[in-house]
């Protein structure tokens, strides 16, 4: 007994709180100490508690060393050990490990000592010889209490975090009063580090000028090497992911203001292993509030720049800066809600010898030709851009035709006073820069279109075929993709070409197709075969022109699709199609219009 007390006096109590692994059943795994001289007992416990950590000994000194090092959750003590020393072990183990549960093991002759053990703090009594069920019952009660205690601790911590979150939300809402977005980003970095205990934080803000680009607003010293600017994918893939930073969008359903990066101080512990309250949820809530505050600040900055930055000073159009801002938001909505929109680029080049319009007059003409919801912007002296919300590629083609007639005030679509090019989201590009480049290239290509060299007095399909053949033979080689090229193909090869063109047109979803058609093998049959049963969005006009003078052997195909246009017209000479073709929107319009006129129907407005 004296030896036990001497050992106890030299050992400090062991704290009870610690994080525990889980056994296969999802209950916390325990550390079990067995102090017994009975060999069957020492063999039984490790076998029954195979998913827990079981320490077995019959020696007093070793038992205390194990208790000190491991802080067991439960101890099985044989009362008959050491001529009564087992009884004193109950008291001393409780003093050494305050939260330990001590289960005494006794034979019938030790029942008196068992009663004394309960008074000293023992939580249970098992009669020897032991069974596996006895051991499991004793341990299960301990596990239940640990689960209940862990859940109570978790709820208390969650309640404390929720109480503090109210104050954090109020502080973040105040950043809307910062002088500018950079100052707001610095304040947000400080708050997030305080809230999360992270080693570092960085805040990226949505760019004012370049859609889908992020600009570094502020960063703590730990993340001072963060990229200054870049797309979301570039920043996350090259900086955040390699450093295992937590990346949280600064946004909500209708607001996208940037990104937050956090360098956490320690690895995250899963909730099922006793993690702290759901701090991720708190962080995302704060990020949503911060996004709204920063968006409000951005709107205030935009308004502070004044109306002069919105309107073009010399015409009734908007400024290009305002156009970029509106287009960026339109791209964001189109991505989020799977919508469509298009842009049109217009370059006004007065024809020598004809009256020229001033930018103001021309802007007024454009505005009269478009919808109120469309946004017209002036880029430079004679260049305008038009944003068409909720407009597909086919709608953009229609607007292009309507605008092209404004060049000289004439009805002819072949006027060179105005270069027009259209691009549609998402087929021609998914960012504003790509869409603007495609529309500008198409506008430039329209300047060299063969349509400008056609004789407007020659309106029949055979006349058009002859002029195109002459163009391919006598005109200087053109480098544009829309240049007219000669074609000489057998019937089978021509049908394969038509099927390929139609398949590409279907890639965009909607299209208008005008094709010659009759009972024999022809382009019309090839087009019908290519469409199959998936022609819901295709407007097909199959025209039989064999009764029209001069069109008995004409084969023609005009395709106007979401992402481009194609025109082919040829004469069938004993199974060989000879003619011309081009990926030229203007030529496709003219061919479709003349095919319709030959058939007595109006196809292109």
Throw out a few tags for this protein:
single chain; 6-stranded mixed sheet; alpha/beta; 5-stranded parallel sheet; 17 helices; 605 residues
Question: What can you see in these coordinates?
Answer:
The chain has a 6-stranded mixed beta sheet, with helices on both faces. It has a 5-stranded parallel beta sheet with strand order 2-1-3-4-5, sandwiched between helices. Strands 8-7-6-10-9 form a 5-stranded antiparallel beta sheet. The model is unreliable at 1-19, 269-277 and 408-414 (pLDDT under 50). The N and C termini lie far apart (109 Å). It is α/β, with parallel strands linked by helices and 605 residues long. The radius of gyration is 41 Å and the shape is elongated. It contains 17 helices and 21 strands.
Question: Can I get a quick summary?
Answer:
The protein has 605 residues and is an alpha/beta fold.
């Amino acid at each position: 007994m004296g030896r036990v007390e001497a050992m106890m006096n030299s050992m400090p109590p062991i704290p009870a709180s610690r994080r525990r692994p889980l056994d296969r059943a999802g209950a916390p795994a325990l550390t079990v100490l067995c102090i017994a001289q009975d060999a069957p007992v020492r063999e039984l416990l490790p076998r029954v508690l195979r998913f827990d950590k079981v320490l077995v000994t019959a020696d007093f000194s070793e038992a205390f060393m194990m208790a000190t090092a491991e802080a067991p959750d439960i101890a099985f003590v044989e009362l008959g050990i050491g001529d009564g020393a087992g009884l004193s072990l109950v008291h001393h183990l409780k003093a050494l490990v305050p939260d330990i549960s001590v289960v005494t093991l006794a034979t019938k002759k030790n029942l008196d000592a068992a009663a004394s053990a309960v008074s000293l703090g023992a939580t249970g009594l098992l009669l020897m010889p032991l069974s596996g069920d006895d051991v499991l019952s004793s341990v299960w009660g301990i596990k239940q209490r640990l689960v209940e205690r862990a859940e109570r601790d978790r709820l208390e911590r969650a309640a404390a975090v929720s109480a503090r979150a109210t104050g954090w939300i109020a502080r973040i809402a105040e950043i809307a009063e910062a002088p500018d977005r950079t100052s707001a980003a610095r304040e947000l970095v400080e708050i997030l580090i305080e809230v999360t205990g992270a080693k570092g934080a960085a805040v990226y803000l949505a760019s004012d000028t370049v859609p889908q680009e992020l600009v570094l607003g502020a960063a703590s010293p730990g993340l001072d090497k963060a990229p200054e600017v870049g797309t979301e994918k570039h920043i996350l893939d090259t900086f955040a992911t390699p450093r295992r930073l937590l990346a949280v969008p600064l946004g909500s359903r209708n607001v996208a203001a940037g990104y937050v990066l956090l360098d956490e101080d320690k690895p995250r512990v899963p909730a099922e292993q006793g993690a702290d309250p759901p701090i991720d949820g708190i962080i995302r809530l704060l990020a949503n509030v911060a996004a709204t505050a920063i968006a409000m600040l951005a709107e205030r900055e935009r308004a502070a720049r004044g109306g002069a930055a919105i309107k073009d000073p010399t015409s009734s159009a908007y400024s290009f800066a305002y156009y970029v801002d509106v287009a960026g938001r339109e791209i964001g909505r189109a991505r989020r809600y799977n919508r469509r929109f298009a842009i049109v680029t217009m370059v006004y080049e007065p024809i020598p010898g004809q009256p020229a319009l001033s930018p103001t007059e021309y802007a007024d003409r454009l505005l009269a030709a478009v919808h109120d919801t469309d946004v017209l912007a002036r880029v430079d002296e004679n260049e305008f851009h038009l944003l068409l919300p909720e407009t597909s590629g086919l709608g953009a083609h229609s607007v292009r035709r309507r605008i092209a007639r404004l060049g000289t005030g004439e009805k002819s679509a072949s006027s060179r006073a105005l270069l027009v090019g259209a691009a549609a989201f998402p087929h021609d590009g998914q960012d504003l820069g790509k869409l603007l480049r495609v529309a500008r290239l198409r506008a430039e290509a329209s300047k060299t279109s063969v349509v400008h060299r056609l004789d407007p007095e020659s309106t029949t399909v055979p006349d058009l075929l002859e002029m195109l053949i002459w163009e391919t033979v006598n005109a200087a080689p053109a480098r544009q993709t829309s240049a007219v090229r000669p074609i000489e193909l057998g019937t089978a090869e021509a049908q394969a070409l038509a099927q390929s063109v139609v398949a590409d047109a279907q890639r965009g979803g909607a299209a208008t197709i005008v094709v010659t058609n009759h009972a024999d093998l022809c382009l019309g049959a090839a087009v019908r075969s290519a469409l199959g049963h998936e022609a819901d969005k295709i407007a097909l006009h199959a025209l039989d022109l064999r009764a029209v003078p001069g069109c008995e052997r004409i084969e023609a195909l005009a395709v106007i699709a979401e992402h481009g246009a194609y025109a082919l017209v040829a004469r069938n000479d004993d199974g060989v199609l000879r003619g011309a073709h081009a990926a030229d929107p203007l030529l496709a319009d003219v061919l479709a219009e003349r095919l319709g006129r030959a058939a007595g129907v109006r196809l292109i407005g």
